[in-house]
Predict the 3D structure of the following.
Amino acid sequence: MEGPRYIVVEGPIGVGKTTLARLVAGEFNARVVLEQVEENPFIKKFYDEPGVYAFQTQIYFLLSRYRQQRQLAQQDLFNQSTVIDYLFGKDQIFAQANLEGDELALYRQLFSLLDARLPKPDLVVYLEARSDVLLERLRKRNRDYERRISPEYVQRIAEAYRDFFFFYEDTPLLVVNSSEVDFVANSDELAHLVEEIRSMGRGVQHYIPLGSK
């Protein structure tokens, strides 16, 4: 296969990373690995009472993400092309947004220990979109517990993602502004993005949608 063998698709809540991960995996004949968000027993409680359940929610996500990625590494990740719909390092974004004090300090110690044990992807595709677009997409997928997510929280997380990836240097990074792009409906746009992924080199590149040229 041409291009990277271990691809991560990332982005804020509602941006469409799982959908794009499936599409990209299909184009590369790759295994797709999806984050098991709804298996977290604290997630619904968190959106009701974030101040009470933030730490439990975050630690569960940290450990479950680590366990899933360690299993992939043990299965010899690099023998099969793989597309994953989350970056392990993004766990820090939500920790920074929702934890503070001793809880945040403890979280950072755990994260550092676990992160050092995991392989890095060959490429991260970072999807970004305007907050109003994220909110619209959240409403369309109609998950019960997500109805309680406030516009302020969506905007705060989107800004935290932008800050995180502005300083991100761990792997090659392809930034895709998806506010006006529908990769499901537009096969030409998807094909164009796939070519960008195949030819991606080092550093940071920005994907320019076909309609913008």
Q: What stands out?
A: The first strand starts at residue 6 and ends at 10.
